[in-house]
Amino acid sequence: MNKNIKSTYKSNDTEEWLDTVWTRPIGYGWALLFKRLHVHPNTVTILSMIIGASSAFFFAHGSYRTEGMEGLTYNLIAILLLAWANFYDSADGQLARMTNQKTRLGRILDGAASEVWFIPIYVALVYRFYHHHGLEFQWLGIADSPNATWVATLILFAFVLYSGFGCHGRQCGLADYYRQIHLFFLKGEAGSELDNSVQQRKIYDETPWKGNFLWKVFLKSYVNYTRTQERQTPNFQRLIARLRAKYGSTNKIPQSFRDRFRENSLPLMKWTNILTFNTRAIVLYLVCLMDLPWLYFAFEIIVMGILCQYMRWRHERFCAKLCATV
C-alpha cells in the first residue's frame, strides 16, 4: 500500500512530511474510489472548491465568546470541511497520475483551488470580527459605538485585502513555481508542470472567444499567474534563457547540471511546503479555536512574508551563481 501511495507522489523531494503521513494516504483512498466510479480529476477539484468554500459559513459563525458551545461546534465543522477539501485537492492530482488524465484545465483549476477556498474564508473572518466587535472593544476599554465598529472593521478589511491578494496569492504562487522548477530539473519537462507566460499567452490568443468564454477566462487568469511568477524570479529567468540558448532544448541540459541545480534547490523545498496549505491551515484552525481570527492575517503578512522573502533570496542567489557557469 505504501508503495502504491508513493507512486502517486509528484516526487519524494517535494513531498511534505505531514502530507506523507496524513493527506496523501487519505487522498489515495478517495482517489481509488473516484477511479472505480470513473470520476474525472477535474470534477474532484471542483468538489474540493465547493467543500472548502462552504467552510466559510461556519468560520463566520464560530465565535464562542457570544455563541458558546454552538460557536465552538461551528469552528469544528469548518475545520473538518476545509480538511476534507484538502483531501480532495490531494486526491485529484493522485487520481490524474494514476489514470494519466493530466490536463491543462486541471493544472489551472488546481492552482485556483486555494484561492476559491480562502477568499470566502477571509470575508467570513471579517464578518465574524464585525459581528462580535462590540464585546472586544469593551475589553479594550474603548467606547462601543457603531462608528467605532465600522472603522475597526474597515481597517481589518484593508489588511485582509493585502493579506489575501498581496501575500497569500503571491506566496503560494512562488512556492508552487519553485516546486515545479525543482521537478523540471529532477524529472524533465514530462515530470513537471513548468509553464511560461509566453506559451500560455499564445494558447490564449489562438483560442476563439466563441464557444470558449469560460475557458478564455481561465486562460487569461493563468497567463497573469505565470507572468507574476516570472517577474518574481529574474535570475532564474536569465538562467533558463541561457540554458535554452546554449543547448537548444531544455531536454539536452546535461545531467551533471541538473544534479547541481537539485543540490541547491532541495533545501528550499521545506520552505515551499511551509508556504502552501498545511501551515496556513493549522494556524487558521488554532486562531479560530482561540477566537482571535484576526491573528491569522498578522501571521500571513509578517511571518509568512519573511519566510517567502528568505526563500526567494536563497533561490535567486544560487540561480545567479549557476547562471555565471553556463
Explain what the structure shows.
With 326 residues, this protein is mainly α. It is built from 15 helices and no strands. It is globular, with a radius of gyration of 22 Å. Helix 3 (41-60) runs antiparallel to helix 5.
Helicity range? over 70%
Give the termini distance in whole angstroms. 43 Å
Q: Please, what is the average pLDDT?
A: 91
Strand content: under 5%
CA-based gyration radius: 22 Å
Low-confidence stretches: none
Number of strands: 0
H/E element order: HHHHHHHHHHHHHHH
Give me the number of helical elements: 15
Multimeric status of the protein: single chain
Largest sheet: none
Helix/strand class: mainly alpha
How is the secondary structure organized here?
Elements: H1 2-6, H2 17-36, H3 41-60, H4 64-67, H5 69-99, H6 104-131, H7 133-139, H8 146-187, H9 197-206, H10 213-231, H11 234-247, H12 255-265, H13 269-274, H14 277-289, H15 294-323
What is the gist of this entry?
The protein is mostly helical and 326 residues long.
Kindly list the characteristics that best describe this protein.
single chain, 326 residues, mainly alpha, 15 helices, globular
